[in-house]
Each structure stands twice: as structure tokens, then as C-alpha cells.
């Protein structure tokens, strides 16, 4: 490898990196001791930190959601919480599951994996990536402190409410910083010869999510600034602490949630293509469908105008917009899954290079979890489309009777359960089992993995089924978004029969969350035993028969820039080498074709 920065902006040398101005600068040496974790700029350590801490926040968020679900199993009043603490725990659940687990989990995986996949020596702006993690961790701690001080949305401690807004702003800024680092790595630090249409699917999905986070979370950051000024200095024309939640809750609801789970689709594509041992017949279609899901997940602040309780729908046009967003996301997910399914069918009789490789006839936890996660993303898009369509018909008075639109009832909770617990956690489980050999050099226990898969998948379905049926059969709101302090009681909205049904269905949802919690605990224990206690089987460089460049490296790669990664002309060098010998070290048909071209 040369030690120069190429025309494509890719750093080839193991001891050279690019600073913020694009000039060559010595890469800081990594401290191999435990203290090195505090000042690390190596993407492998930063990624591990994100992964570990996000799983812990996932546990906290799931426990909080369990308290809320148990409280909703009684129509006569609060059973676990009280009126004030219900609001605080409810909003903390959404903060913890989205900004504490879902986004940082896949950000951590991307920070670790994407540089290896595109042939980069490190993530772009290593110090900024490290600052992203520490800023996120500190902000998450401040967020917890604000809630403890009764300072969340609708909280009674004014300074605590301000602190909550500052903490959410810190989370947004930190996660945006990490997303920008991943996006810049994919765009500017690819190996010479690797065009964007040859990047591995997960790297592309990370770029899609990072791009959409920049344009959507930037909006909420502006909203938080306005809310902070309005709450702290008056005149409270936005409702003060009572109006905060209704203006930021779109971050935790569909269609915005589709942006956060695009990396799940990248994981699904990576694993299914490795199992089929084929590349899709039209790569651009693969990238297009992933991008479509991210594009139609974007609604930003406009979602508030569409979904705010009591909003005036002029001729139903805003409702049509929401239906269109769900329809576009469903088209993207369905197209991607159909494309992958056709590729798998084509490769059903493909010979395997070794007995230890992943096979469709020998599914492991990663393959099974990826398949279920992809299916649940499609199911969530379909559920959202149906709910948005019914809402539009109700509000536009076009023939569907009902008291409360589904999006203001437990239907919303059902969608969140499918995407966060189902697609998000199962996609994370698939990614952890798939890349654990590369991240930690150890395989995770397959027995514990299958148990986690069954628990999380089954629990997510129950957590979705209970509140969704409650929204359909009883039209009973769990939470009134326009007034966070008002938790509508079942007895005030439906008759005794409806209240009993709603109680039973809420219990079903609570049982589902209990099972999900057990699955998350199994995942954490699996990591502790297999990795921390080193009980997992040591992994060779390519234990699954992977296709993408990271499987060319040792498991795990040493700290610092790799000295062994070859120059790449493809995102699937191992598949290219297996069949026609091209893709490695600039040799073969692909390299000859692009010998005089500069990657776009």
C-alpha cells in the first residue's frame, strides 16, 4: 500500500490520516491499556462503546415501558405510577428507546464496520467521532437526571424542564456528529476503484440514515431552541412545559421511525446475500429501494401539522400526504425484500466454498433474525398505511365512523412496538451475531441467540397486538398527545364491556414487553459471557463465508489503521475472488474497466 492520499480522497497508509482541512496528518497512537478507552480516536473502540452503552439504555427504556404498560391494565386509575410520574415515565420511555438505544446502537455498528467495508484506515474525523460518543453519554446522563428531578415534558420543576430540553439537544447534536462522520467516511474515504454502486449494502444504508438524520434531526434541534426560549423566558404562547411533548413527539413515531431502521435493511441485505452467495442482478435497485425507505420516512416538523390532535384537515389533503409517506415506505421495503428473495431463489443451488459458511439450509441466529426483522419492517409500514388511511377517512368524513382516530390511540404504540422492539432489536441481534467475530474476535452463543430471537420476536408481536387491537376494538386512547398531563381513563371513554376488553388487551401488550425484556437481558448476558468472560468460540477471519471487505481482516482487527487490507475495486471482493478472481488488489475485469476512471 502507498502512503499517499489518492485522488478519491482515500488514505491508504497505515500511519496517515486526513485532518479537517484535508491535509495529511499523523494518526494518533492508541493507548492499548484501559486508559486508552478514555482518549481513543480509533473507530473500533468508539463503535464498541456505543454498542455496549446503547444496550444498557435499551434495558432501562424497556423497563420504563413495562411500568407504563402495567399502569394501563386498569381502567379505574393508576396502579403502578401516579398522574405526574406516568407522564414522566411515558416520555422517558420514548427518549431512552430511540435516542438511547435504537439510533446509537446502529451508529456504533456503523462506526466500527463501515470503515472496514470501504477500505478506510479509520472513520472520518476520529476525534469528532469520539466526541460524539462522550457527548451522547453525558447528555443521556443529564436526561436521566432531569427526569429524576421531575423535569421532563409536563414536569413540575421548571429548571428541570429546561435541563431536559438541553439534554435532548445534546443527544441530537452528538448523534448528528457521529452520523456525519460515518457519511463522510462512505463518501470520501472509499478505496480507489470502489464506486458508490459497489459499496456493501450496510455501508449504503448507514449513509442513507446519516443523510436523513442530518435533514430531520436538524429540524428538531431548531424546535428545541424555540421551546427552550419560550419556556424559560415566556410568554408561553406554545403552552410552556405542557406543549413541549406535542411538538417533539414526531421524532418517536412513524414515519420518522423508518429513517432509524434503514440500517436494519442493510443488515438484512448483507446476511441474505452472503447466504445466497450471489450479488443482486441489479445493484442500483438495491440502493434505490433502501433510499426510498429513508426518503419516505422524512416528514420532520410537518408531521406535527399532519398528526396534531384536533388539526384541521382541509379537504383531507394533509391526510393524503401521510398516507403517501407510508405507501412509499411500504413500496421501498417490499421492493427490497422482493429483490433479495429473488436473489436467494437464484442462489438456492449455488455451491458453497466451505462447510463452515452460512447456508440457507443451515440458518443461524443472524440469518433468522435478519429475515424476521426485514419482515417486521414491511409489516410496520403496512400497519401504518392502514392506520393513516382510516384516520384520513375519519377526519375527512368520508364514510368511516369512529370517535378517535387510530393514530391518537394505542395504534401508535403498536407501530412503535413493531419497529423498535421487533425490527430494531432483531436487526441489532442479527448484526451483533453476524459481526461479533469481527468486533470482538469471539462467536456469540447460538443457543442464547435463538432464545433471544424467540423472546424478542414473540414479545414484540404481543406488544404490538395488544395495543393495536385495543385501538381497533375500543378506540381507547392510552395517551392524549395534545395535553401530556391528561391520561384518559378507559371508564370515561367506553362502556364497561369496552373497558374490560381494553384492560385485557393492555395486559397482552404488557406481557409482550416482559418477554422482550427477557430477550434483551439474554442478549446482554450472551455478550458478557461470550466476549467479556471469553467463553465464546474464537473466530477465524471469515467464519460465515462473508462477501464484503471486512472479512479479509483478522478477527478482530488490531487497533489503529489496518496494514493488511488490500486495495478494493468491489464491495464483494470475496465473492469476486471466488468466481472470477477480480476485485482484489486492483486486478481482474472490474479493475481493468475502471483503470482510468476516478470513483464518483
β-sheet strand percentage: under 5%
CATH topology: Cytochrome C Oxidase, Chain A
Please work out how many helical segments DSSP would assign. 18
Q: How many individual β-strands?
A: 2
Q: What spatial order of strands do you see in the largest sheet? A: 1-2
Q: State the fourth-level CATH superfamily.
A: Cytochrome c oxidase-like, subunit I domain
What global shape is seen? globular
What are the SSEs and their pairings?
Layout: E1 16-18, E2 24-26, H1 43-71, H2 83-118, H3 126-148, H4 158-188, H5 201-233, H6 244-248, H7 256-260, H8 262-276, H9 283-296, H10 302-307, H11 317-346, H12 365-395, H13 410-440, H14 446-473, H15 490-493, H16 496-532, H17 573-579, H18 589-593
Antiparallel strand pairs: 1-2
Helix pairs in contact: 1-2, 1-3, 1-16, 2-3, 2-4, 2-13, 3-4, 4-5, 5-8, 5-9, 8-11, 8-12, 8-13, 9-11, 11-12, 12-13, 12-14, 13-14, 13-16, 14-16
Structure keywords:
mainly alpha; 600 residues; two-stranded antiparallel sheet; disordered N terminus; disordered C terminus; Cytochrome C Oxidase, Chain A
